[in-house]
Amino acid sequence: MVELSHPPATSLRRRIRSYVRREGRLTPAQRRALTELWPRYGLATDRALEMERAFPARQPVILEIGFGNGESLIHLAENHPQFNYLGIEVHRPGVGHLLLMLERAGLTNVRVFCADAVDILQSVLPERSLHRINIFFPDPWPKKRHHKRRLIQPGFVRLLSAVLENEGLLHLATDWPDYAEHMQQVLAGFTEFDRIDHQSVIPPRPPSKYERRGRRLGHPVIDLVYRKR
Questions:
Q1: How does DSSP assign 40-93, residue by residue?
Q2: Which architecture does CATH list for 24-228?
Q3: pLDDT digit string, tens, across residues 109-140
Q4: Active-site residue list
């Protein structure tokens, strides 16, 4: 089964989570994937990751946090095989769905964590080991009283900065203008990050189901890309 790792219960009570565990039922295929395919693609959460052992090829590593059902992750991995890809997702149905797609596509440049991203950033990923970090359409928590639950907060950005290599890129996307403004305000507090024109350095990303839903509702889609000095 998927190996999960969590901090002690006292730490869990103190931490404000950016997600709620309301995952749907696992399909039989997803359950099979989590049992049979996890040893091939899954990564342990209780030890530091050795990049050279995780992937068959040594090449730059891109991380996607909160990959949902894995649409964007597998699209990028298929179309840009010159990179290795890590995915972090806390909901098991999404992880199972991605594992099934990886099996069908026969990809070898993707590895997966089923865990809280904070735990992985704090204890598992080596410093300055990532070429790029993608965070596409995190939960906007639109009500003001819930803004403290938003993923992009100063403490979280400090964790991202620690694992991102110099000149590495942080790519954020949202369809909530208020959250985009919040993201920009948070990143403005970090002198090591400069906002750049993303069209010149980032390949087009596939639209996610959240983006498609947002566009149907008339939401503007906003991409923000930052380079670490």
A1: HHB--SSS---HHHHSSS---EEEEES-TTSHHHHHHHHH-TTSEEEEE-S-HH
A2: 3-Layer(aba) Sandwich (3.40)
A3: 999 999 999 999 999 999 999 999 999 999 99
A4: 139
